[in-house]
């Protein structure tokens, strides 16, 4: 019988691609999401409707599984800390507890490079980079707390764990980065000196990193209890990349430029105004965290992932952009 793998958040952008890749490799795949997804069912993937905040839902979905890839998360740069904490930290704790109770042997966690972002440039750092002392948003804070939980539980009750940190996932079907660019293209302005470089990760490469990590993972494997940066074959200048994404949508490049300190101050003022007004259901046009992410370099070494589970980006940036353009033309 094929191994059975649960993907939490299996209906999402990353989760659905992981589900497809696992199915293509012959695994028996289960998706746990808040709703059922016909596109997954058509691929022969079992869809369980439920929440990672429910232990009973997790037990139903994880029954008889050999491994779990945990992608479900509360994403965003604004909102009450309680909501981020419940999903990202307590939800992850529930996944760990359920896996240990049901004697699941492997857990791959989707983390984020934002857990080590202090607001300063990061240029080619490896996984030894320490967590910062403070965070400007609840998302990276709670992802860091969850990552620590996952890594601390490696070897507990025979569960092997590892964490993957893909940076800026994009590609056809992207429900976050590309749509937000389209929506805000007319009012977007470039931030910083326009030379800042970042890692980006094409969706198929990000998904394959999780599958490879799962297949390598055991209590004795090199990736057990460790975290990994993954990205493309090279970092890319952020604003040139954004202009190329806009060109894929037949939109003009981003005009103008704002110094990073000015964008940061604007973010501070908008955050203050939203807090005073009690606005929690939508993000400010700019935040301090977003300003620094737009104006700073943020790219990493991927040598550890290449060494420990043979990660190599199969889809290049150029091919990914061609795929994105083709998908946007169809839609």
Features:
alpha/beta; 16% strand; 331 residues; Rossmann fold; globular
The first-to-last residue Cα distance is: 39 Å
Number of strands: 15
Shape: globular
Assess the beta-strand content as a share of residues: 15-25%
**Secondary-structure content class:** alpha/beta
The CATH architecture would be 3-Layer(aba) Sandwich
Oligomer category:
single chain
Count the DSSP helices: 12
- The CATH superfamily is NAD(P)-binding Rossmann-like Domain
Q: Could you give the order of strands across the largest sheet?
A: 3-2-1-4-5-7-12
Tell me the helix content.
40-55%
CATH class: Alpha Beta
Major sheet description: 7 strands, parallel
Task: Chart the SSEs and their pairings.
Blueprint lengths: L3 E5 L4 H12 L3 E6 L4 H5 L3 E4 L5 H8 L4 E4 L10 H21 L4 E5 L11 E4 L12 H15 L7 E7 L2 E2 L6 H8 L5 E2 L5 E2 L2 E2 H14 L10 E4 L5 E2 H11 L8 E2 L1 H18 L10 H8 L2 E3 L2 H7 L7 H14 L1
Parallel strand pairs: 1-2, 1-4, 2-3, 4-5, 5-7, 6-15, 7-12, 8-11, 9-14
Antiparallel strand pairs: 10-13
């Amino acid at each position: 019988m094929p191994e059975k793998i649960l993907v939490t958040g299996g209906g999402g952008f990353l989760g659905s691609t992981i589900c497809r890749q696992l199915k293509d490799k012959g695994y028996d795949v289960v998706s746990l999401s808040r709703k059922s997804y016909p596109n997954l069912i058509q691929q022969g993937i079992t869809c369980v409707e439920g929440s990672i905040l429910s232990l009973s839902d997790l037990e139903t979905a994880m029954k008889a599984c050999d491994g779990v890839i945990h992608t479900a998360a509360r994403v965003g740069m604004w909102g009450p800390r309680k909501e981020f904490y419940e999903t990202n930290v307590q939800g992850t704790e529930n996944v760990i507890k359920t896996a240990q109770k049901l004697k699941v042997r492997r857990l791959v966690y989707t983390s984020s490079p934002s857990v080590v972002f202090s607001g300063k440039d990061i240029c080619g750092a490896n996984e030894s980079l320490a967590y910062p002392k403070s965070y400007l948003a609840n998302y990276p804070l709670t992802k860091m707390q969850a990552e620590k939980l996952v890594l601390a539980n490696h070897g507990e009750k025979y569960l092997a764990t590892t964490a993957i940190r893909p940076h800026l996932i994009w590609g056809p079907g992207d429900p976050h980065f590309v749509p937000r660019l389209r929506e805000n293209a007319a009012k977007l302005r470039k931030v910083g000196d326009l030379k800042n470089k970042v890692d980006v990760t094409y969706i198929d490469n990000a998904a394959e990193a999780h599958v490879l990590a799962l297949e390598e993972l055991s209590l004795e494997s090199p990736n057990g209890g460790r975290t990994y940066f993954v990205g493309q074959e090279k970092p890319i200048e952020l604003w040139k990349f954004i202009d190329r994404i806009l060109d894929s949508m037949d939109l003009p490049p981003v005009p103008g430029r704002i110094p990073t300190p000015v964008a940061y101050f604007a973010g501070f003022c908008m955050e203050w105004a939203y807090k005073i007004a009690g606005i929690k259901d939508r993000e400010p046009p700019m935040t301090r965290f977003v300003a620094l992410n737009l104006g700073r370099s943020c790219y990493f070494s991927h040598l550890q992932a290449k060494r420990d589970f043979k990660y190599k980006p199969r889809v290049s940036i150029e091919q990914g952009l061609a795929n994105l353009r083709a998908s946007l033309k169809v839609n």
